[in-house]
């Protein structure tokens, strides 16, 4: 069940080629990591998959649909199904909006807000990511980095996604709370059958978390490996 099919992706910044013909597929329920040194093109690949930056060449297919051919207007309808989670936990939440509103906003924007059920849905999403629903009253800066990353994941889940594009989601978190967030992500993948494109420069994290790893260097895929046989226990 192929969720994402990326073919010959090229991303240029002016004359510099950041991504130089990257291809891969990702199945539903799979964690595919992009690993490699800083500057090798991981984030640029993620942005191009999300169509937050249109690739210069190549194709991105998501659930069989060619995103690279869609207009912005058409993309708006697909976007909820592929959601980003970025490195800066405070970056995905607007600083002046309470957590409750940040999680409710995708539901409202997508016309799925029912005033009689919405607040309970928000509470359920917060609970799902391990936040007490009372945290809904807080502003992002009143949360720790880990709590804030969890709130950002709740906001992503509100869109009912099939794919999360996670760009270094635990790299700026305190090492002591990384495992908790990774365990949450593993549970969500298992429960919801989500696919993850997991950008991570840390090989220890990748080895622990990914089903399959693509190594990148200078904008290209140099190798592919699996940390463990699929379905083996952690
Ligand atoms: P990684 O995520 O692996 O660290 P990036 O995709 O961020 O790699 O960067 C790949 C290359 O593209 C690097 O050489 C980087 O300096 C360059 N780059 C990234 N973003 C921009 C940008 N907005 N403008 C110009 N160059 C960029
Ligand atoms: P401003 O608060 O600066 O007026 P907007 O409300 O126009 O900003 O939203 C700016 C961006 O923040 C938009 O991309 C929007 O999707 C996002 N956004 C809107 N409401 C929230 C919210 N409650 N939490 C997080 N992000 C939000």
From TrEMBL:
<dbReference type="GO" id="GO:0005524">
    <property type="term" value="F:ATP binding"/>
</dbReference>
<keyword id="KW-0813">Transport</keyword>
<protein>
    <submittedName>
        <fullName>ATP-binding cassette domain-containing protein</fullName>
    </submittedName>
</protein>
<keyword id="KW-0067">ATP-binding</keyword>
<dbReference type="InterPro" id="IPR027417">
    <property type="entry name" value="P-loop_NTPase"/>
</dbReference>
<dbReference type="InterPro" id="IPR050319">
    <property type="entry name" value="ABC_transp_ATP-bind"/>
</dbReference>
<dbReference type="InterPro" id="IPR003439">
    <property type="entry name" value="ABC_transporter-like_ATP-bd"/>
</dbReference>
<dbReference type="InterPro" id="IPR003593">
    <property type="entry name" value="AAA+_ATPase"/>
</dbReference>
<dbReference type="InterPro" id="IPR017871">
    <property type="entry name" value="ABC_transporter-like_CS"/>
</dbReference>
<feature type="domain" description="ABC transporter">
    <location>
        <begin position="4"/>
        <end position="234"/>
    </location>
</feature>
<dbReference type="Pfam" id="PF00005">
    <property type="entry name" value="ABC_tran"/>
</dbReference>
<keyword id="KW-0547">Nucleotide-binding</keyword>
<comment type="similarity">
    <text>Belongs to the ABC transporter superfamily.</text>
</comment>
